[in-house]
């Protein structure tokens, strides 16, 4: 019986943590009008960075 309760509590805890992480990820940019047109640009080189070079606005 103890193993059943322990397994159930671990399962519920894991599902709640996953739910909270997904809810957090989908909570960004809800206030923006035209939020479906927001994009993220990532520079890839030796490492990935969210910073972009300054002439990028002309290229896009």
Describe the overall structure.
There is one protein chain. With 60 residues, this protein is mostly helical. It has one domain (2-52). 47% of the residues lie in helices and 7% in strands. It contains 2 helices and 2 strands, in the order H-E-E-H. It has helices at 2-25, 56-59; strands at 43-44, 48-49. It has a two-stranded antiparallel ribbon. Strand 1 (43-44) and strand 2 (48-49) form a beta hairpin.
Number of strands: 2
Q: Number of DSSP helices?
A: 2
The shape, in one word, is elongated
Question: What low-confidence regions span 5 or more consecutive residues with pLDDT below 50?
Answer: none
Q: Structural class given helices, strands, pairing?
A: mainly alpha
Count of structural domains: 1
How would you write the strand order of the largest sheet?
Answer: 1-2
Order of helices and strands: HEEH
- The gyration radius over C-alpha positions equals 20 Å
Helix content: 40-55%
Specify the oligomeric state.
single chain
Distance between the termini: 61 Å
Mean pLDDT: 83
Most strands sheet: 2 strands, antiparallel
In what range is the share of β-strand residues?
Answer: 5-15%
């Amino acid at each position: 019986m103890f193993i059943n309760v322990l397994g159930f509590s671990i399962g519920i805890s894991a599902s709640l943590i996953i739910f909270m992480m997904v809810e957090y990820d989908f909570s960004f940019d809800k206030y923006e009008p035209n939020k479906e047109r927001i994009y993220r640009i990532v520079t890839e080189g030796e490492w990935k960075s969210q910073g972009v070079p300054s002439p990028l606005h002309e290229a896009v």
